[in-house]
Design a protein that fits this description.
Number of strands: 12
CATH topology: TIM Barrel
CATH superfamily: Aldolase class I
Radius of gyration: 20 Å
Strand content: 5-15%
Distance between the termini: 37 Å
Number of domains: 1
CATH class: Alpha Beta
Order of helices and strands: HHHEEEEHEHEHEHHHHHEHEHEHEHE
Largest sheet: 8 strands, parallel
């Protein structure tokens, strides 16, 4: 199997599994506890059906939309995802270049393996930074200031990771950052010599945005859950979110909003967007899926704030269903990370092309000339 054989999410996942050592593949693939929420994120899209209109003279549909004050060429962008250097030696650079090529947002994680400044220098496309509130206020402020000076267009604050979820696959496979050899992982690293060669012969693994502040997770091998529990502030509150809104002063989203009450509060503190997300099923297992929560939240705050659906998106039809129920756009993580592991920048470009083609084709079949025509009349629940 090679990149040319990858037509959908499952194909990219299979090729990434072939290419990556088991601890790293399972870090992308896994969720918390019994992984019920991880599964539900995608299964929830099956609860309703699209209703097409025929003879709509669609022609070439307009896939563009506006989010975070930026026009993007398709209503889907890359979710912020940590440590991309582990999945391919080009890491965030590959993802940022691919997103720019498709006219959509690249999102940088606080725990990226390229720095804010490096990505600003290699990509002129729209960029969002994903912030965590650290126990050290100075580090949080440093990240915001650097994003301002580097021309990032938007910022999101992840609010659902004040403590690490119980990701049992990481325990089972001994996943750490940077990777270290254990009896369990040794065979997997040894049987993926191409990955090992590229990892060892390219730039050293580091959490590039925080390595000047702390060596944990860069030169001191740490479990991701350990890093989160040591570095992030578990007492994060709405006051912290308000502080970031004011200090950043630009387009801003809260990522991890799942309740109507919190969506309304986000409007009140001046956020310009919310990202409906349960962190890919990696935090609170048993929580609702973003798609299941979308109708109630759209009814409560639609028109007052942009709504990004993040979670479970694997098909163009998933994007169209979300937009029909009130989302402004969607973002996805696992899909492009598997594509990155499958083929680097070419892999990310290929999955973006596949998703763009699906959205375009499905809009024509649905009878919609533009994103603006997607609404509740296009959806029927079973």
């Amino acid at each position: 199997m090679n990149l040319n054989d990858c037509y959908n999410f499952d194909d990219f996942r299979k090729l990434a599994k072939k290419n990556l050592p088991a601890p790293i593949f399972h870090y992308i693939d896994g969720g918390a506890d019994d992984e019920t929420t991880l599964k539900r994120n995608t299964e929830s899209f099956l609860k309703c059906d699209l209703v097409p209109n025929i003879l709509a003279s669609v022609g070439e549909p307009d896939l563009s939309t506006s989010v975070f004050g930026q026009k993007i060429d398709m209503p889907l962008f890359l979710s912020p995802s940590a440590m991309q250097r582990l999945y391919h030696h080009d890491g965030d650079k590959a993802s940022a270049r691919a997103a720019e090529k498709f006219g959509t947002f690249y999102s940088m994680s606080t725990m990226a393996t390229s720095s804010i400044e490096e990505i600003a220098n290699i990509s002129g496309g729209p960029k969002m930074f994903q912030l965590y509130i650290h126990k050290d206020q100075g580090l949080t402020d440093n990240l915001i200031d650097r994003c301002k000076s580097s021309g990032f267009k938007a910022m999101c604050l992840t609010v659902d990771t004040v403590v690490a979820g119980n990701r049992e696959r990481d325990h089972r496979w001994g996943f750490t950052t940077p990777p270290k050899l254990t009896l369990k992982s040794l065979l997997s690293f040894a049987t993926h010599p191409k990955w090992a060669f590229n990892y060892l012969t390219h730039e050293k693994f580091q959490l590039a945005n925080v390595s000047h502040w702390t060596k944990k997770g860069s030169s001191i091998a740490k479990g991701v859950m350990e890093y989160i529990n040591e570095q992030y502030d578990p007492a994060m509150s709405w006051k912290d979110a308000e502080y970031v809104v004011k200090k950043w002063g630009g387009p801003f989203a809260l990522k991890g909003v799942m309740s109507v009450e919190d969506a309304k509060r986000a409007v009140e503190i001046g956020a310009s967007a919310i990202m409906l997300s349960n962190h890919g099923g990696r935090q609170l297992d048993g929580s609702r899926s973003p798609f299941d929560q979308l109708p109630a939240i759209a009814d409560a705050v639609g028109g007052k704030i942009e709504i990004i659906l993040d979670g479970g998106v694997r098909r163009g039809t998933h994007v169209l269903k979300a937009l029909s129920l009130g989302a402004t756009a969607c973002s996805f993580g696992k899909g492009f990370l598997f594509a990155l592991g499958a083929g680097g920048q070419k892999g990310v470009e290929q999955i973006l092309q596949r998703m763009r083609d699906e959205i375009r084709r499905d809009m024509i079949l649905l009878g919609c000339k533009s994103i603006k025509e997607l609404n509740k009349t296009k959806i029927v629940y079973r």
